[in-house]
Amino acid sequence: METGMISATTVPTAASTAATAKNTLDKDGFLKLLVAQLKNQDPTGAGQDPNQMVQQLTSFSSLEQAQQTNTLLQGLQTQTSGLFQAQTASLVGKNVKVDGSGFNLKAGAASMNIELAGTANVSLTVKDAKGNVVRVLPQGHLNRGLTAVSWDGRDANGNALPDGSYKVEVTATGDDGKAMPYKTNLTMKVDAVTFKDGGIYLASGGNIFSLADVLEISA
Of 42, 66, 88, at which residue does a domain stop? Predict the structure, then answer.
């Protein structure tokens, strides 16, 4: 008797688990259930509601159309993604202005743009990839608005530094001694376009920028 009781307890538990797993009816299950009903139910028979059968047929048709629409939308999304990637690939070789700060040193020349909210005394601190300060560039008083600043690629001792990416920290102080708000951006030539994690990124001289950071594109 004891063994029978254990067996009887185990079986309903497994059945309950299976019932829980099947508690949610997916679209395939709905279609199978409706088809089975259509095969075995006579809407004109006694006790049947023809209006209910019409509603079920309408639901069947609507679901089928929805499935076809989803398939078409997925196909269009794939095509659109491919076309967009092909278009962004054409940015290789183009000059783009991106939101950010830094110097992309190439052949002893680099530049970036500073947009000041008002007249300010500006100084740039240039750092290499390891965070070492290689040059401090006092810019003096700059007027409100956009100003292009440049660097000859030399360190504080006048030595030419290798091409590459250099970080720039900006200090802008107004005439009242308070920090002046500013924005920075730089122009770079796109070397490559990368697609990863659902995003599009532009590479130039070791720097990588999101396509969303692009402010301007020029030849």
Answer: 88
